[in-house]
Amino acid sequence: MQPLYIYNTLTRSKEVFQPINPPYVGLYVCGPTVYSDVHLGNCRTFISFDLICRYLRHLGYKVRYVRNITDAGHLEGDRDEGDDKFAKKARLEQLEPMEIVQKYTVGFRNIMARFNTVPPSIEPTATGHISEQIEMIKEIISNGFAYEKEGTVYFDVEKYSKEYNYGQLTNRKLEELLEGTRELHGQDEKKGRLDFALWIKAKPETLMQWPSPWGWGFPGWHIECSAMSRKYLGDTFDIHGGGMDLQATHHTNEIAQSKGCYHAEPVKYWMHTNMLTVNGARMSKSAGNGFLPNELFTGNHPLLEKGYSPMAVRFFMMQTHYRSTLDFSNEALQASEKGFERLMQSWKTLQTLEPSGTSDENIRAIQEACYAAMNDDFNSPVLIAQLFDAVRIINTANDKKLKVTVGDIQLLKDIYEHFVFDVLGLATEEETGKTSEALAEVMNMILDIRHKAKLEKNFALSDQIRDQLLAAGIQVKDSKEGSTWKLN
Ligand code: AMP
Ligand code: ZN
Question: d(Cα 339, Cα 307) in Å, to the nearest integer?
Answer without folding.
Answer: 16
